[in-house]
């Protein structure tokens, strides 16, 4: 049930109206029912997977809690080692089974392709058939959410939910199923089960947030998608087309993903539930580590809490640290765990997107850029001081933002290319930009070639104006001015003008039609 479909609006109107009319103690039951209706709408056959994730993590959490209780009642007892091992075994079994299913759906066909390639090279007359797998809706997001819950119980941060139906709502809450955000039980659980009364101001805020999300998705992201799709359809983009593709795709994926999350957060807000922010104006970041703290915040927090810290502070790295400190190499002992964990996180994050060489290259690239940035930071500081650069001035901050955006765009080009070798060819072709005689030079920006490939220059004008509105809103939010609340303080006429302008933009300039997949979000496939 796509967010931009008529069926979703009918579903939301019916659920929202009923939600505030029924007795408050049954509201969570209605949310659970509505969430499963929403999920079943995508494909009835795939409901077994979210049920497996829910049941396995629920049972696993309670089995882990038994071991936690046993350790609390008899700390340091004779069987404490056995109990700890049993607790860890339960955790590993549930994690492996759930992430195994996720890997099966996301990577099986890629692995079959690699296996067939190996057989072709070695001359073995054998060929695996690829499967026609349908990726279950939101499988990555509900898997990460349920496994995070299990790990938190394992760590003793809270005791597991006793009511399996209540826990099922936490896993399946419908606004965040398509593309997140990934919530923690400590943040979302109580909200889901608490009574909620209708609040007109809150509902208005939620609808405005949904409208803003549709503006970013349908007007900006889907229009940019025509540009990126047209360039990629040429087969092997070269020269200036590569630059346009990289910049365009960087904004497309941001508008698409953040727009979808805004819609999800707006729906939840109407129901009285606050979902976490997932984007904090990432293209205002001045360094790559800061970019990842601002981009897909809930997932990167998941990587940080459940992979980065456990690896960096693992017994193995503690031993390595002691080894290097004993030999006087304090810097190595300090930075090796950080750099190693950073590379592991970035590679795992990339391979979550896809099991191909281009994604692996993307992960290694991001890891290396972050590590080199941290390693070279003191040298950059000394260079700036030597050149008498005021590192606090406005222009220097702009330079750092542009530099970070450039580094991010390089990573985007690696993944948007059909294959890794095509990405390499694209980068090698950048020299054509400065060859006026080339059909791929900077002249495409004004000689009409780019317009002929995509759409009329007037449509480009619409895109730039809408992006300017988005940019101004992000600047205001970056300065701590919440646009929705600032609009609320204006006269009623001003509020309605702004709202109708957004509605008009979505209605008039949104990308619709049978040839466009305006309902599909990029991260819906992850």
What's the structural blueprint in terms of helices and strands?
Elements: H1 6-21, H2 27-42, H3 47-73, H4 80-122, H5 139-154, H6 164-172, H7 185-193, H8 200-233, H9 240-270, H10 288-294, H11 297-312, H12 315-326, H13 330-353, H14 357-386, H15 394-416, H16 420-428, H17 449-453, H18 457-478, H19 483-488, H20 492-509
Write up what this structure looks like.
71% of the residues lie in helices and 0% in strands. It contains 20 helices and no strands. It has helices at 6-21, 27-42, 47-73, 80-122, 139-154, 164-172, 185-193, 200-233, 240-270, 288-294, 297-312, 315-326, 330-353, 357-386, 394-416, 420-428, 449-453, 457-478, 483-488, 492-509. Helix 6 crosses helix 7. The chain is globular. The chain starts with 5 loop residues before the first helix and ends in a 17-residue tail after the last helix.
Descriptive keywords:
about 525 residues; globular; mainly alpha
The helix content, as a percent range, equals: over 70%
> What overall form do the CA principal axes indicate?
globular
Structural class: mainly alpha
Strand content is under 5%
Number of helices: 20
- Radius of gyration, Cα only, in angstroms? 25 Å
* Distance N to C terminus: 16 Å
Summarize the main sheet: none
Residue ranges: pLDDT <50 for 5 or more in a row?
Answer: none
Summarize it:
The chain has helices at residues 6-21, 27-42, 47-73, 80-122, 139-154, 164-172, 185-193, 200-233, 240-270, 288-294, 297-312, 315-326, 330-353, 357-386, 394-416, 420-428, 449-453, 457-478, 483-488, 492-509. With 526 residues, it is mainly α.
């Amino acid at each position: 049930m796509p967010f931009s479909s008529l069926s979703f609006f009918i579903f939301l109107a019916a659920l929202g109206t009923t939600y505030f009319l029924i007795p408050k103690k049954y509201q969570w039951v209605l949310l659970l029912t509505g969430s499963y209706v929403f999920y079943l709408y995508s494909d009835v056959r795939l409901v077994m997977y979210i049920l497996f994730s829910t049941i396995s993590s629920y049972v696993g959490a309670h089995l882990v809690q038994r071991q936690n209780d046993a350790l609390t009642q008899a700390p340091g007892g004779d069987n404490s080692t056995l109990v700890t091992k049993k607790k860890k075994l339960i955790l590993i079994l549930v994690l492996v089974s759930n992430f195994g299913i996720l890997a099966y759906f996301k990577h099986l066909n890629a692995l079959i392709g690699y296996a067939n390639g190996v057989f072709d090279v070695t001359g073995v007359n054998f060929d695996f058939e690829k499967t026609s797998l349908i990726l279950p809706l939101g499988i990555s997001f509900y898997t990460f959410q349920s496994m995070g819950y299990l790990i938190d119980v394992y760590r003793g941060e809270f005791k597991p939910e006793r009511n399996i139906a209540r826990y099922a709502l936490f896993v399946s809450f419908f606004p965040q199923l398509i593309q997140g955000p990934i919530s923690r039980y400590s943040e979302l659980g109580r909200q889901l089960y608490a009574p909620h009364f209708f609040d007109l101001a809150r509902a208005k805020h939620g609808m405005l947030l949904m409208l803003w999300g549709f503006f970013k998705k349908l007007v900006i992201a889907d229009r940019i998608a025509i540009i990126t799709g047209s360039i990629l359809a040429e087969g092997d983009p070269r020269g200036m087309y590569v630059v346009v593709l990289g910049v365009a795709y960087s904004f497309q994926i941001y508008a698409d993903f953040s727009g979808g999350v805004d819609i999800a957060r707006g729906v939840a807000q109407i129901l009285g539930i606050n979902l976490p922010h997932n984007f904090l104006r990432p293209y205002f970041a001045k360094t790559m580590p800061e970019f990842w703290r601002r981009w897909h915040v809930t997932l990167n927090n998941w990587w940080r809490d459940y992979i980065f810290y456990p690896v960096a502070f693992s017994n193995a790295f503690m031993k390595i640290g002691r080894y290097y400190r004993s030999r006087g190499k304090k810097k190595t002992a300090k930075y090796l765990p950080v750099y190693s964990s950073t590379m592991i996180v970035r590679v795992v994050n990339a391979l979550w997107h896809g099991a191909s060489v281009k994604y692996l290259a993307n992960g290694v690239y991001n890891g290396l850029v972050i590590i080199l940035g941290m390693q070279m930071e003191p040298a950059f500081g000394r260079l700036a001081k030597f050149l008498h650069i005021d590192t606090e001035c406005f222009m220097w901050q702009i330079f750092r933002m542009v530099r970070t955006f450039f580094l991010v765009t390089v990573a985007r080009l690696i993944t948007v290319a059909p294959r890794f070798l095509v990405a390499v060819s694209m980068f090698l072709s950048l020299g054509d930009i400065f060859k006026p005689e080339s059909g791929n030079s900077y002249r495409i920006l004004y000689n009409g070639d780019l317009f002929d490939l995509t759409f009329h220059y007037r449509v480009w004008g619409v895109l730039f104006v809408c992006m300017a509105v988005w940019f101004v809103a992000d600047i205001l939010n970056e300065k701590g001015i919440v646009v929705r609340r600032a609009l609320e303080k204006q006269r009623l006429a001003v509020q309605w003008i702004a709202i109708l302008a957004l509605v008009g933009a979505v209605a008039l300039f949104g990308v619709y039609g049978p040839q466009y997949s305006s309902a599909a979000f990029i991260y819906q496939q992850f």
